[in-house]
Specification:
Elements (H helix, E strand, L loop, with lengths): L10 E6 L3 E7 L6 H16 L9 E7 L3 E5 L8 H9 L10 H12 L12 E7 L6 H12 L3 E6 L6 H7 L8 E3 L5 H9 L2 E6 L3
Parallel strand pairs: 2-3, 2-5, 5-6, 6-7
Antiparallel strand pairs: 1-8, 3-4
Helix pairs in contact: 1-2, 3-4
Length: 206
Amino acid sequence: MTMKLKLIFGVTECKSTVQDLLIIEDVSTSVGPRNYGKMKDFVVDTIRNISISSKKTNVAFMVFSDTAEVVFHLNTYRDNKTSIMEAIDSQTHTGGNSFLGDAIKLATSEVFTETNGDRSDVPNVVLLLTDGYSDANEDVRSSIDGLKAKAEVFVMTVTDQVDNTTIDLVASSPALKHVFHIDASETARSIKNVTSLQICTDHMGR
């Protein structure tokens, strides 16, 4: 996203960007109930700070473990932040294996489509919360380029032990700007910048 500056009156005006945001939660056994609780609380707090409406940010939500599931699409709760927060808050830690590749394929084929609310004129952003472990790494490698072609991918690691190789593969480049840890002091601010980014225009007199 390019930030354009126009100098006219000496006043700074800011407006929130519009985006289609997909949040993907890893609910597999390796994440664990305690880390999952932190993950869910973080996501709900993140949603609370986003301007959500049909003309602003739209949100979709997925979970994955043995299988991947779209809990709701970009156009399911387009004008209802409360329903989004309730749907995310009601999600539980199911446990099971971790098929990250299936989640990536489903996001690419089903979430970012016009039928399910994807808007062609706004940026697509993915926030993936995971430890990076997958029971089918080949599926991750073969499918991630398709998702990256449609969206900018940010990864939040949620455990102390993570698969850095897979995380760096999944995240958009550079990884330094697209990978965060849930317990890092700067993460909340960084994710807020990603999901509630403002473009500011400085106006100065001539």
